[in-house]
Amino acid sequence: MAPSAGKKRAPPTAEEIDERNMVGVNKETVTNTTSNDYPDNYANEEHAWDKDDFRRSFKVQWHDNQQFEAQFSLIGIDASIANAFRRILIAEIPTLAIETVFVNNNTSVIQDEVLAHRLGLIPFTGSKKVICDVMGFWQKPAEGEDTWSTTFDTNTVGLSLKAKCTHNKDAPQDSKDPKVLYHNAHIYAKDITFDPLGGQSEWFTEDDKIRPVNPDILIAKLRPGQELDIEMHMHKGYGWDHSKYSPVATASYRLMPTIKITQPILGEDAKKFVQCFMPGVAGVEKVTRQEARTPDSGYEGHEGELKVVVKDAMRDTVSREVLRHPEFEGKVKLGRRRDHFIFSIESSGQWDSDELFLEAVKTMKRKCSVLKPQVTNMVYTF
Amino acid sequence: MSREAYQVPTASGNNSAPGGGTNLSRTFDTEGVTMNYICGDCGFKFPLRRQDNIRCQECGCRILYKERTKRMVQFEAR
Question: Which residues lie within the region annotated Disordered (chain B) (predicted)?
């Protein structure tokens, strides 16, 4: 029959819609990976992007919201948008990091360049308000300009690290630990001191001064006679310039896993089935009397036996271990929901994780507002 | 220029020798400039001149290290 034969297709059932949204995870293949909710993909179905539709169906669920570790779900969103958020989180939210290192003296075994690189990667924190609102971006002085002509208290933070290793005269005779034998044998991030420039001594209070997020990061090890005398300048920057400016340690998403049990799995098989998954994903329950009496449920006459139930598919790693065993063949269907993104944002410490996501949304809006007039112009031109 | 033809630039030496200019700021004498060296064994710091034996004055160790530059060195933390 020709497609134009006139007979209208029935609207999709809820099951069909569910099936369309599912990425199939099979033994050796992954199927149905691309999104299909766009116009002209299905006959007699609209699927044009609609703001009200989106507003109705879009959901945000928080699973875990600690200061530096957040997990939440964005449900009903396209992969392109979810990925845009992820990329913005990694590369387009500015943070403060050590950019220039002035080495007056470094007689430790670690080379100046390596030391400078290590210092750059240390995450720092401080008054969020000042870093966000007062501190601006530093620009390289133009050719012929004075070296410091662009360096101000509103775009540079000064730090210094001075340490000299000496023998500890009071160390016990039999001690072997360098930290006991010598003073300043280990130099940690907490040894870096903040040197306020200009107005910074007023902006940054004592509790909110620039300090390393993790005070126990080991920077260098010294032995008696070795010395470090370093000054540093911090600037604001973006993750696309260097990963030290990235505000997140990881920002990633995964799709919501689904486990569909199509035929009952009972008895010893049920226990084996549970072992195929991470703890807490699947569990066993006793078949109830009601289930055993329901015809065509597959549980007839199995009252009291153990059966498999899916407890929390979100915890599944989709290892596909269950698909390797012949006894489960055809009884279970693994998949992922294509529009359910489980984000996990681990902040490196300068901002809180939930702030970072809101900031990413703000950045996205700003970028869209740049794009919008260009699209409008394009429409007018043609 | 062959290796043999190379002359260590000194103030008292031939002015036409390469590198031997009048703009040298360091003071040279016939003995050469004095530099501080650090013994690789005992860590003793002492000056050495051109003619001196390459040996630590304290422990006789023959491994000597030069001192690090006193100038500030700037790096990008990248």
Answer: 1-25
